[in-house]
Amino acid sequence: MDKLTLYIANKNYSSWSFRPWMALTGAGVDFEEVLIPFDYPGGNPDIKAVSPTGRVPLLKHGALKIWESLAIIEYVAELYPDAGLLPRDRVERALARSVSMEMLSGFRALRSACPMNIRRPKGKIALPDDVDADIGRIETIWRDLLQQSGGPFLFGAFSGADAMFAPVVNRFEIYDLVSQNDTLAYMETMKAHPAWRKWEEAARVEPWIVPEDEV
After folding, report:
1. Rg of the Cα atoms in the chain
2. GST N-terminal domain spans which residues (predicted)?
3. Residue 29 has what pLDDT?
């Protein structure tokens, strides 16, 4: 089989890159990582040379290129059906896809007001009113799935659905957005995952600063 190459951007800021990277790493899937920083005002030309959208993440598998976080996770789940990226149960797979798509397309108020930033010291900021609705909906998703599965991850074992919400865990923590015990417990579970720790360690020593993401 041709090797998998995952192109990503800055680990400190790139929520979209974090998702497939954590999914593949957490599932034990072997891949080569290529980091192309977005530290150019007009966009890094190296990204545009690789990606048809001019953005990352992008997975290259032989001549095939797959972009968008969820598409990458789904593709690798098909390549490695025993890796646990999708639940085995049909109903749970449908739920995992539903909440992953909701994360992919929704929660714009939260994402806009609170950029992911691994290095940011914890502290509150002034927030638009509509962020509260996003926070409440995400907590409901987590609570319902954890109650159904028994935890510690959304579908029991770690899966691609957890990886899709990984940047939210960082946002909830660094902007001090949540206080419910079950939410905090799930966040601690995610932050203790070896894949999370590996990403965080690398993010903290990156040299790049992106001013617009330093809220």
Report:
1. 17
2. 2-84
3. 98
pTM of the model: 0.95
Question: Rounded distance, CA 111 to CA 200, Å?
Answer: 19
Sequence length of the chain is 215
Cβ count near 150 (within 10 Å)? 9
| Tokens linked to 194 | 């070896």
DSSP label at residue 211 = G
**Residue 85 confidence (pLDDT):** 98
Per-residue pLDDT, 127: 96
Residue with tokens 């192109």: 7
How far apart, in whole angstroms, are the C-alpha atoms of residue 106 and residue 14? 17
* In the predicted structure, residue 41 carries a pLDDT above the cut 80: no
Encode pLDDT of 58-78 as tens digits.
999 999 999 999 999 999 999
Residues 6 or more apart whose Cβ sits within 8 Å of residue 73 = 19, 20, 23, 24, 85, 100, 160, 163, 164
Q: Which two tokens stand for residue 138?
A: 């995400």
Cis ω on the peptide bond leading into residue 152 (within 30° of 0)? yes
Tell how far CA 189 is from the center of its chain.
15
